[in-house]
Amino acid sequence: MSNKDIQKIIDETAFSMEVxxxxxxxxxxxxxxxxxxxxxxxxxxxxKYIDNAKRIGKTAKETKYAEVTE
Length: 70
Prior knowledge:
mainly alpha; 3 helices; flat
C-alpha cells in the first residue's frame, strides 16, 4: 500500500471519528500508519489497545469505589 493510500485512509478515519464527536490523536494516526504499512502486526496493535483499555477501566473503577466509600 502506498503512503498516499495510507494517508487517505487515516484522513477518512479521522474525519469519520470527528463527525461522531471523537478525536483521532496523532499517536493513534501513527499507530494506524504502522499497521497499514506492515511495520506492526494488527494483532499486536489490538493487544496494546485492549491492555490500555483494561488498565484505564481498572483505574476508573478504583477511583469510583474510593469516591463512594469516602
